[in-house]
Specification:
By secondary structure, the protein is an alpha+beta fold. The protein is about 15% helix and about 10% strand. It has a two-stranded antiparallel ribbon. A two-stranded antiparallel sheet has the order 3-6. A two-stranded antiparallel sheet has the order 4-5.
Amino acid sequence: MSRALEYMVFTVTGIPCDNYLEQPCTTTRTQCAVFSSTEQKVLKNMAESKTLYPAVGSYGPCAVKGLKVGETKKWCTCGLSSKKQPWCDGSHKGTGFKSMKFTVEKEQEVLYICNCKQTKTPPYCDGSHTSAPEIVEKRKNACAKKDGHVKDCKLCTNCGWVPDF
């Protein structure tokens, strides 16, 4: 597995749930309500707590200028970095997330860096932000811990919930 994918939090693994009916799903321990197979895999991972889910910095990329070839940056994987998005500011401490180091490989005037934290090509934006809001909302609504979310909690890594800023 590549280093970039090692820190990906939107991992799609495991056996997909084939239950498209509004009844309890035996493979995900969640309610299946016409979820796509990808959404079902995400929900299965969440239910089994195999994957950490980040907060969403914003549903769109950060256009970054002025990076030089060979320059190393730390990309925020948790979505909590309020001061330096898309770069890590250490806000992930205590959440289980780690920043992802990457080195600029080629000269470009503008790099589009993922800020929704759902990309499959980290740290670069792959357009996942266009479908992420619905998936993220379903994941939050299906979270087994949603009734226990507390305002002093920094981040629910089970679903990506954060208290209102």
